[in-house]
Amino acid sequence: MNRKCLVGGKTIAAIASAVVPQQGSIGIVRVSGEKALEIARQLFYARGKQIWESHRILYGYIRHPQTQKLVDEALLLIMLAPRSYTREDVVEFHCHGGIMPVQQVLQLCLELGARLANSGEFTLRAFLNGRIDLTQAESISEIVSANSLEASQIALAGLEGKLAQSIRALRATCLDILVEVEVRIDFEEDLPPLNEGEISKEIGEVLGRVKEILATAQRGELLRTGLKVAIVGQPNVGKSSLLNAWSRSDRAIVTDLPGTTRDVVESQLVVGGIPIQVLDTAGIRETEERVEKIGVERSRRAAAAADLVLLTIDAAVGWTNFDTAIYEEVKSRRVILVLNKIDLAKGKEVKYPAEITKVVKTAAAFNEGIEDLEQVILASVQGGEIVAADLEIAINQRQAAVLTEAKIALEQVVETINNQLPLDFWTIDLRSAIQALGEITGEEVTESVLERIFSKFCIGK
Known about the structure:
- This protein is an alpha/beta fold.
- The protein has helices at about 5, 35-45, 100-110, 120-130, 135-145, 150-160, 160-185, 195-215, 215-225, 240-245, 290-305, 320-330, 370-380, 395-420, 425-440, 445-455, and strands spanning about 10-15, 25-30, 45, 55-65, 70-80, 90-95, 115, 225-235, 265-270, 275-280, 310-315, 335-340, 360.
- The strands form two sheets. The chain has a seven-stranded mixed beta sheet, with helices on one face. Strands 9-10-8-11-12-13 form a six-stranded mixed beta sheet, sandwiched between helices.
- Helix 7 runs antiparallel to helix 8 (about 195-215) and helix 14 (about 395-420) runs antiparallel to helix 15.
């Protein structure tokens, strides 16, 4: 892998903070590389006798290097190599928030010899310069995009190196086994016989741990990306009331008139550490009214794209033929039946298709049954249970795919040993497992993989 090709020009610059007009109080321009300090000295005027040294914050002004025209009042952070995010010389201009100050400062940095950073290039340099491994780099991206406290905690655990430590330990064991096997191949007559039972036990332990880590993939993906939940049903069954009660807001208009909701109304929640995007849809029914018809079609599309459908009916009315028609449309998804307006049912027993096994009773207008609904949702995910707080590490999709390759290779080693094949055959799959484990941490990784990972980062990270 050509690291110079990946890094490109020597000095990079980018806006490292969100730029929102009239919202941000501080705007940050980050510069990394051999010209970083030189650029800072040309742009920044430090008042008084402040000392230009690493890990100091200077107060002063940013001026145009030729005209000396004032650009902004600012702070300058100096972090010299190797004690910086990228292990290169890094400076940060902390300007007033807003579009104009940071854009002017960035443009001046580019005019003085820096180039605009690529997506994730600061973090890529941190990886290439050995400050972090690949799992830590991915965790940085996950911290930025976390939608729940639990997702943030898992990302922080990855940043601390908990996943990398486990993977490196497994890889080290495989390397030790490979050395033992290869030594016996080259110097069989000079060494005692290989203890195949002990080798099989060690590989079995590695394989077991690989499977344990793989088991965190689905739960980790849920905590990172969340669930999309669609509330569907006939008009006037209380879908909007259910959304309002669940989100503790008045996002949806609630009236006694059927067909009030004409479009999909969205709310963001966190349940059991899982981000949930809740979609309140227009009541599904046959209609010739043009606007409502568009809303009904959007409801059908929302239900088709949802991970989970809350099929809501009026408990006082009971299950109808219209509910059967809606159920036929959504039953390919994971479905929870919500018997709403249970307060009006007066003990009436509601009959519904026997194949529906998850049922919740609610009185959304009185905020009743919401906790029960959340528990059933959590129980329906992963076949029963999510304990977010117990997840110390959770791998992402890329890591899961590579770790699956390692699992398959280790299973092949076990099969090779059981079939009493020659030692040369052992080494083939051992090397494959070692290669795959190295790809997770970045010890074995291609340029194309790095480009794919870091292209998902924001430019200033």
